[in-house]
Amino acid sequence: MTAQTSAVTPDPGLEPSPEFPRSPTAGGAARLALVVGALGIVYGDIGTSPIYALQTIFNPADPHPVPTSTDNVFGIISLIFWSLLIIVTIFYVGFAMRTDNDGEGGIMALITLIRRHSEGRGRKAGLVLAALGIFGAALFLGDSMITPAISVLSAVEGVKTINPDLETFIIPVTAVIIVALFAFQRKGTAAIGRCFGPIMIVWFTTLAVLGLGGIARNSEILRALSPVYAIDFLFGHFDIAFFALAAVILTFTGAEALYADMGHFGRKPISRAWLFMVFPALLLNYMGQGALILEDTGNIAGSFFLLAPEWGRIPLLLLAATATVIASQAVISGAFSVAAQASELGYLPRLRIAHTSEHHYGQIYVPWINWLLMISVLTLVFAFRTSESLAFAYGMAVIATIVIVTVLFLYIARVRWGTPKWVLVSGGGLLLAINVTFLAASTTKIIHGAWLPLLIGLTAFTVMITWQKGREVVSAERERREGPLREFVDKLRRGEPKCAHVPGTGVFLGRGKDTAPLALRAALELNHARYAHIVILSVETQPVPRVPESERIVVDDLGHDNDAVIHVTARFGYAEAPDVPRALQLVGQEQSEGRRLRLRNATYFLSTIQLRAGTEPTMANWRKHLFIATSHITSDAAEHFQLPRDRTIIVGSHIEV
């Protein structure tokens, strides 16, 4: 028997496997459905910013308020327009979303690309940037907690413009909406997109119509499209404008979510939705609100709802509440993607991930993350109680993540595309300077609540790097105990130790083909029996979303030309649900090469590790306990690998960290 050597190259061009094909691209109806779905999932966050952004910027209770004057209104609207154009349209839609890992986007995809392209050269820089990226991913998880809280709260608070006596119902109603939203997540982004997409079409149409109405009342606001007003505001009133930037960030929250959600729908549907509906609608609405404020500064509080005629405010309130639920969906879906990719890349424990679509592999549901987010969001709602209080905390995580994504993107542009340095220094430097200025402005809000997303991000970052380090320690100790695989197999074939032979096939899951699985050693030593056919199986997660079936397995006969003991490597992409029995069928089908494996009734053996804090200085003691605590959320291995419960045996052992 000769070993198969079909290699998997981590190439973005890999085709998806049949059970999770890519999103359909054949017909116009399919493309339109993806655009509608993207509107329902991706653009809720950035699409609901008009509800609270301008009233936050001009909020007199802000620690650094922006005085309401004609020049300041023109300057703010101009800043909003150019921020949306440069950061979202040019950077994210125009450039960042072209930097994908076989269709998967977001900061974790950038980390994967950096790890791949820094191998052998620039390794130290790659490690530093990967760590920076992990911090960005952690910040995004923090944003995923704050966005639903502020979005739903701001919409429900609209009842005060109708009847101030209803204020006591704001918190309870917000909590009920949030619980319902997270309970609905198990349906999957495909089902949610079908429900939310048409609603968001109505929402963005309403934004545009309301904005046009406001502009018609004072068309002078159209002059704010000129960059002159933004520049004059920034440099002519820098003492005011600098602090205002921290609130302007609220207008493009959700930019990272649309990048992280790219794997759900693809780049083109998301880009088309932004260019032809979302961006124009947002711009018109902000300008309409600006015109309303110019008309009467008393319109600042509730400027969004005051755009509507009095008879239309109750329907608008209901529509806004629905839209903010959808806004939460954007970051929730993005959090699922980030957590799933972090798990597969070794920065989080193995999580249970449900693929919710048979037609698009990127649509997933991660139960543990879902319920963690729900509890966190409810805690924020009851702790802060108003959207104004949360607004001080909002934005820091968003802009910090955008700065990190910009840095990672510029590195990828250099090492992957070979972009000339002068282009990176000029164009990239300007973009980075803009983003860093926004970040610097956000630091002024740290003592007023911006510390919260930083604390959440730092906590998540600590968990991630601790898990990665602890995983390395456990793997090293496990390899030492397991010992060399080929040496073990050679002894086994010489009849050492003495064992009775039983018919059938035993499949032993291990960490690789260099060491013997602990379960195999324990089974022989305790039972003094071995199966006629032994398959030592290791599962590898490739740094690509999907691995084609033709490259799914690699078989190694371990130096012996028979099928009594073989090693099989099963390869899966990080977006796949690893189905081990199905992958092993590919081995059993190769009858022409002399294999006679019978896997239909094979018995599967798993090794489970009980962790203990030891005395070795591998990590700080608190990190050891954090690592052990984090290990408890690891999903069941038999379920994760889709092993048959009635034919799976689990063998335990202890390892100190």
Automatic annotation (TrEMBL):
Pfam families xref list: K_trans (PF02705), K_trans_C (PF22776)
Transmembrane segments: 32-53, 73-95, 125-146, 166-184, 196-216, 228-252, 273-294, 314-340, 361-384, 390-413, 422-440, 446-467
InterPro entries reported for this sequence: K+_transporter, K_trans_C, K_trans_N, Kup
Catalytic activity line of the entry: K(+)(in) + H(+)(in) = K(+)(out) + H(+)(out)
The name this protein goes by in its record: Probable potassium transport system protein Kup
Task performed by this protein: Transport of potassium into the cell. Likely operates as a K(+):H(+) symporter.
PANTHER family: LOW AFFINITY POTASSIUM TRANSPORT SYSTEM PROTEIN KUP, OSMOTIC STRESS POTASSIUM TRANSPORTER
Gene: kup
Mode of membrane association: Multi-pass membrane protein
Domain K+ potassium transporter C-terminal positions: 503-656
Major localisation: membrane
Source organism per UniProt: Glycomyces rhizosphaerae
Family: Belongs to the HAK/KUP transporter (TC 2.A.72) family.
Domain K+ potassium transporter integral membrane intervals: 35-490
Region ranges (Disordered): 1-25
Localization, UniProt: Cell membrane; Membrane
HAMAP family named among the record's database cross-references: Kup (MF_01522)
Taxonomy, superkingdom: Bacteria
Transport recorded as keyword: yes
Keywords, comma-separated and alphabetical: Cell membrane, Ion transport, Membrane, Potassium, Potassium transport, Symport, Transmembrane, Transmembrane helix, Transport
